[in-house]
Specification:
The complex is a heterotrimer. By secondary structure, chain A is an alpha/beta fold. Chain A has six helices and ten strands; from the N terminus they run βββαββαβαααβαβββ. Chain A has a single domain, classed as Rossmann fold. Helices cover 28% and strands 26% of the residues of chain A. The C terminus of chain A is likely disordered. Chain B is an alpha/beta fold. Chain B has two domains: 142 residues, Nitrogenase molybdenum iron protein domain (Rossmann fold); 104 residues, Rossmann fold (3-Layer(aba) Sandwich). Chain B is built from 14 helices and 13 strands. In chain B, the strands form three sheets. In chain B, strands 1, 8, 9, 10, 11, 12 and 13 form a seven-stranded mixed β-sheet that branches. Chain B has a four-stranded parallel β-sheet with strand order 3-2-6-7, with helices on both faces. Chain B is globular, with a radius of gyration of 23 Å. By secondary structure, chain C is mostly helical. Chain C has 14 helices and no strands. Chain C starts with a helix and ends in a 6-residue tail after the last helix. The mean pLDDT of chain C is 85. The chains are: A alpha/beta, B alpha/beta, C mainly alpha. At the A-C interface, helix 2 of A face helix 9 and helix 10 of C.
Amino acid sequence: MALIKLEDVTIVRGGKEVVSHFSARIAPGKITAIIGPNGSGKTSLLSALAGDLPIASGSISFDGKKLSEMSTEEQAQIRSVVQQNRNYWLSYTVREVIEMGQDVLSLQHVNRIMSALEINGIADQKVTTLSGGEAQRIEIARALIRDTDIYLLDEPLSAQDSGSKQRIISLLKEFRDNGKTIVIIAHIDKSALTWCDQVIETLAQQRPTFCKTWVKW
Amino acid sequence: MRIRRALPGILLAVISLGALTGCGTSQSTAIEISTAQAVKVSSQETPKVHHVVALANGASEIISALGLKNILIGRDIASTDTDLKSIPIVTSGHQIIPEKIISLHPDLVIIDKSTGPQSALDALHTSGISVVQTPEAWTLADIPSKVSAIAKVIGVPRTGAQLVGAMDIPNISNPALAKKRIAFLYLRGGSAIYLIGGKGSGADSLITATGAVDIGAEKLQNPFNALTSEEIASLNPDVILVMTKGLQSVGGVSGLVALPGVAQTEAGKNKRVIAVDDSLLLSFGPRTPDLLKELSRAVQKVSQ
Amino acid sequence: MIKKLLPLLLAIVALSLVGLSLGATDVPHMWRYIFHPFLEPQTSAHQIIWQIRAPRVVAALLVGAALGITGSMAQSSTNNPLADPAILGTSAGASLGVLIGVVTNVVTVGSVGAVLCAAIGALAATLLTFSLARSALQLITIGIGVSAILNAIVGLTISAINRPEARSISFWSFGSLALVTPENLMIFAPILIIGSICAWKVAPRLDLLSLGDASVRHIGFNAQRIRLISFAILATLVAASVSTVGSIAFLALAAPHIARFIYGPRNRTLVVYSAAVGAIILLLADTASRALIPPMELPIGLLTSLIGAPILILTLKRSGDVWR
């Protein structure tokens, strides 16, 4: 169980403040969705949580430990990331990509995740021949086979049909029931997010400002 | 872990290869000839020119040997006789520098067939400088005519004849060396191709005069011929003759005898190498008689 | 992997025999001497086959393997199919290292010391490129710049100074196996072995780089450190190759592409297959250089280009699904 605390976070990108004095607590063991229109700072927020983007002021902490004081390895042990864009350009197989860089894996566990995401059938196919939806699920698999307290997913459902969406959602719920903290970014309507426990909505105005409103279902 | 298993196999192969090559006997019998005495005469005549730039191969030496060093105001880079040190060099490598020559205001510039480039010579002609070409000498027999021509051109023909007389080439042919097979190698740094001197390289004339056999001249028609390592190994000379700078460029005697091809020859295995100073070997001038004596001694010594 | 490796190994053995049998001179009873390596070591027949040709065959295999591995590592670590140690500044650094060593009279050409100077130069140049570059693409562009500068310094220095030994360094810009001695190989072989083992060990990390630096970071690895380690390994292999036989064009670029086309992009297998393909190409090129118009020897760089380039173009045309 890990509590993610954001205190007075400001993120500057290209000279502009994309996130402005944002504070929030992301509940542990819950699924939290960050939604909002384009340009309102969602992806920057997730990148900051992932440790990819430095924050200009404020602090982010996981269970009391500051992100800025954690090494790359420590961060990797706490959280897993699913990125939004995926372009594969070398013809590894699906299984090779999923297992890349991950040392100790139980084959059973990997297969389970892969079949839950319906990619076990294409395990030996070359990743350069995949559709956008399949590639996205590969990325999700890469993160979900890791055993970390936190999972950060950037738009994991954008390229999926409704059947796939359901499968992914039920997998995420399963992880949540096992005590994992899940944060997703979604570009969809509030009404479609009943499966999330907590929703943070970002609003953009003329000056890109981050407004904090969060709704608890 | 395939690679780890192959390790001992690979090491074994490499070591066996090393063992196969065997070692040559390593007596260090390389000989260097760096200087030779120049024959000199003193001139009773007055030369008709007083400011001479000598660019023909060996011309500065000959003028100095005629006792007329004082009329020399410029020389080429190949004339390295210590006697001539004070005379300015007017070439860059083997290319003449027209501005330098013109600025010296010479009465005469002596060239031969190999002086160049043509554009520099044209520049000299255009500026009105007198340029005369003298014959080259690539064999011992040509030396007299080269000396006479140069003497004539500067106006001291009788002194020239005197010098020719003093330079009488001794008969140094040694029947004991009749079976010695010598190869003249022209070396310029590590290169896949060796240049071996053939007929007309100049060295053939010298080698033959000592009584030994120039195997390059025996088999090859051109003054310089390209040979691969395998061919050198088959040719198998007893002694190798090189020029000093060339020897340095391959890392000295130890570098030379390590070269594939040379390493397999009699000369390479026994380190029988004679190195002669670059400007001395093919100078075909006043130092050549003494060079021949030294060369004969060297071949004898190296063959023991 | 053994099944796929077998045809390559057979090709290597066959080509080695061909390499021993061809050359500038005709050796009588050649096959007898080839199959009895210890027969009559004093005859010129034995010497030509085992002291002149055999070192070249072994050199072609070892150097070809080394260059194949360096090419695969350069391409994988920079995520760029155009990467080649010559482009990254490594080969130029090696030449400059030896030049400085020779000019300051610290080492002589061809000695162990020269290999060390080459290695220091290669590593320094590679580190220079590395420290100036901020991304994988910049590694290539800055590497080209660094190569150009260092090569120019080497060329100008050789022209300006009047030392005969320095001229032998310019032979390195052309590359040739003709001057390889068994002693050179005994120094080279252990370096190759250690380098290959290190390459093998770092290979899975190189796979990871293809997913992008962010993905690498997310699972706790440092992309630049992986690149640095790869560069150190490849700089060492390049330095050893350049000081043994000079710069050989194209091989490091072509061999990994061919290996990748046939065997896929997994770096563990790529290390082995690039080595094998590199060895085969260099052996073919060297044998051709000696045997096409005997007794002339054709420059080996031209032959590796001639053999490597068409195969490279062909594989790139067919391999739509290997690189995008």
